[in-house]
Design a protein that fits this description.
Blueprint lengths: L2 H13 L2 H8 L3 H15 L4 E3 L4 E3 L1 H26 L5 E8 L5 H14 L2 E8 L2 H10 L4 E4 L8 E17 L12 H4 L3 E4 L1 H12 L7 E5 L3 H9 L4 E5 L11 E5 L5 E9 L6 H19 L1
Parallel strand pairs: 3-4, 3-5, 7-8, 7-9
Antiparallel strand pairs: 1-2, 5-11, 6-9, 6-10, 6-11
Helix pairs in contact: 1-2, 1-4, 2-3, 5-10
């Protein structure tokens, strides 16, 4: 199974049209069709359903698309890393980040670093712990920032200086907004929104077995999307402070939970990871930035 064939397959899957894909790849349509037919024969599975003017992926094709995308990303990253070995002034670094106010420390370190190493090109992917660690383990990412304690057997890590504070985002005219902090009893009976990760790992730390008395209306991986549902009066959002605009005039307010619930954040990378020169230098800058934050 050749990498070039994977690129051909992805182009057809993306365009859903053999002619357009062939034009983009600068190959003839018969050549492209022959390559894809050979791929189907090699895998023993039908990857496309062909219609009059379009092509649709089969279930097997959808599975291969995900695997092929990962393979191509890894191959491209390897190529870029070797090209960057002699370039200590620049190169590509890939991050997978959870939503957190702590990301400001990372942004500050990158800003300072680029003053010296202007050739740095950084790429940011957002996601929860499961999403970003999967990409990190595959080698697609160099670093990940998690709001869950990392496995010290698999990863090296730095702990960010502060911790994120949990609370409830609600309409500004809600009766609960008169309170300075909210306890479990305040949340019983409310339609609640929360990230799946937070609901499974963080909220139980706060309320223990009483989580069975709370009602999860829906889960969001992005807090901003959840806040839009709050504005429509569909529920209340359990999330970190500072992720949602709750300034006067926003129509929303944030109230912390009591007893206080906080979640630390970690920057992680794989054990025995071999970095490009620019990634190694950036890691040292990140260590210095986080250390300064801890001492502040």
């Amino acid at each position: 199974m050749e990498l070039r064939t994977m690129r051909y397959f992805l182009a057809v899957a993306r365009e859903e049209n053999m002619t357009r894909a062939a034009e983009l790849l600068h190959v003839t349509q018969p050549t492209l069709s022959k390559q894809l037919k050979s791929l189907e024969n090699e895998l023993g599975k039908k990857l496309f359903t062909r219609h009059s003017f379009s092509i649709q992926l089969t279930e097997e094709g959808v599975l291969l698309r995900k695997r092929a995308e990962d393979l191509v990303k890894i191959a491209d990253k390897i190529t870029a890393e070797f090209l960057a070995l002699d370039d200590v002034l620049g190169g590509d670094v890939y991050f997978g980040l959870a939503e957190s106010y702590q990301i400001r420390h990372l942004a500050a370190a990158i800003r300072t670093f680029k003053n010296t190493y202007s050739g740095l090109r950084y790429h940011i992917t957002s996601g929860d712990t499961e999403q970003v660690t999967e990409k990190l383990d595959k080698g697609i990412l160099d670093f990940a920032a998690l709001v869950q304690e990392p496995d010290p057997i698999k990863y090296n890590y730095l702990k960010f200086p502060d911790a994120d504070l949990w609370g409830l985002v609600m309409p500004a005219d809600c009766l609960l907004s008169a309170k300075s902090a909210l306890c479990v009893d305040d949340l019983i009976g409310l339609p609640l929104f929360c990230s799946e990760q937070g609901w499974q790992h963080d909220i139980p730390r706060w309320c223990g077995s009483r989580i069975d008395q709370l009602r999860l209306e829906g889960s969001f991986r992005l807090a901003y999307n959840g806040s839009l549902f709050v504005k429509e009066g569909l529920g209340f959002l359990l999330t970190f402070q500072h992720l949602i605009d709750t300034a006067p005039g926003s129509g929303l307010v944030f109230r912390p939970l009591t007893p206080k619930l906080e979640t630390p954040m970690y920057l992680i990378w794989k054990k025995y990871q071999v970095f490009t020169p620019v990634a190694s230098l950036l890691l040292e800058a990140l260590k210095e930035q986080i250390l300064q934050g801890q001492e502040a």
